Automatic annotation (TrEMBL):
Localization: Cell envelope
Name of the protein: Thiol:disulfide interchange protein
Organism: Alistipes dispar
GO MF annotation: an example: antioxidant activity
Record flagged with keyword RNA-binding: no
The keyword Disulfide bond appears for this protein: yes
GO cellular component: cell envelope
Length: 351
């Protein structure tokens, strides 16, 4: 379930490709909205606005560069609605979904249409997944179908900016080299877009933390404010393997991994297994409460700055949970060991 919800939320982040000679129009007719609509970029900088008359609105502009945008009806972005759309040449129509009245979609251009088709198909799978009548066996199949849906969307949209968006969402599970190989399959003009540049930069940094690479040291304060380095843990004579674990108390999937971490730590800590947890929490009390209440008895550090964390940059962490397994020679030997996979791997190494 967590895969589906994470991917469904993440896939809503949209971009597109355009040129300086073409114009875009964003229009719609939505009942019950405020008197002005606002168009923001991904950094929440205001791009444009328009008055609403009887629910109808229209914004025109030039698609100077690939960009994703947020359309809402409040200057503080806390309006009655919010929809993310792709700015590209053409007329983009924002409307409510026929299946889900609380959901809005943007259609009318290639990339927006592709995203809407993907989101609609994904929503149908999510509804079936959440249905109490759906069997556990069917839920497992739905997760596989959702993964395949994303792969197909990427493959079918390499010639438009929605394909770039799909790559940015699927890059989490790929190595740095695999991401670069995927980028090479896109047309040159899409490879030069701002979003693809970010993906490439992340991939190049990720190359430095792929399996076989030496670890990068992390030095951050523990609960008492004392700085604890990853190096001191890796080089501890009693340590044979260290799991560098990126997590946060507010992250549901992260907390879902805790039982597996506890099981593995409990059985293999005395044999040389250690965990160095880097929290992306912002709230000290919530961070420490999660550690205490869940009996997470390993090493914990945090700058309490969320993803604004040097370790996140060094390890190209874009989503959590993320983990890396480091051996006593300081080499990364595995990444993203989730669920029972962690227990099985450590069991093989320390049997």
């Amino acid at each position: 379930m967590k895969k589906i919800l994470t991917l469904a939320a993440a896939a809503a982040v949209l971009c597109s490709c355009g040129n300086n000679e073409n114009r875009y129009v964003v229009e719609g007719n939505l009942e019950g909205i405020n008197e002005t609509v606002y168009l923001f970029d991904r950094q929440q900088q205001l791009l444009d606005s328009a008055k609403v008359e009887n629910g109808a609105f229209r914004i025109e502009g030039v698609a100077e560069a690939p960009a994703s945008a947020i359309l809402t009806d409040a200057r503080d972005m806390r309006g009655t609605f919010g929809v993310m759309l792709i700015l590209e040449p053409g007329t983009i129509t924002v409307a409510r979904s026929e299946q889900e009245q609380n959901a809005l979609f943007a259609t009318g251009t290639v990339s927006n249409d592709a995203n809407t088709a993907y989101m609609t198909a994904g929503s149908e799978l999510i509804r079936e997944f959440r249905d109490p009548e759906t069997t556990d066996e069917r839920r497992e199949a739905i997760e596989e179908e959702y993964e395949e849906l994303g792969s197909q969307a990427l493959e079918q949209n390499r010639n438009n900016y929605f394909g770039v968006v799909m790559l940015s969402q699927q890059a989490y599970g790929l190595s740095g080299q695999e991401i670069l190989d995927e980028i090479a399959l896109f047309p040159a003009e899409l490879q030069q877009t701002g979003e693809m540049t970010k993906i490439r930069e992340n991939a190049e940094q990720k190359l430095k933390t792929d399996v076989g690479q030496p670890y990068i040291d992390v030095v951050q304060p523990d609960a008492d404010g004392k700085e604890v380095s990853l190096k001191s843990v890796v080089e501890n004579p009693a340590t044979k393997y260290v799991l560098l674990d990126f997590w946060a108390s507010w992250c549901g999937p992260c907390m879902g991994e805790v039982p597996h971490l506890k099981k593995t730590y409990g059985e293999f800590h005395d044999k040389g297994f250690e965990i160095y947890g880097v929290s992306f929490d912002n709230n000290r009390d919530k961070w420490l409460a999660a550690v205490k209440d869940n009996g997470m008895d390993w090493i914990h550090v945090s700058t309490l700055g969320g993803f604004d964390n040097q370790a996140a940059k060094d390890y190209a962490v874009q989503a959590i949970p993320t983990n890396l397994l480091i051996d006593r020679e300081g080499r990364i030997i595995a990444k993203n060991l989730r669920g029972e996979a962690l227990y099985e791997k450590i069991g093989e190494l320390l049997k």
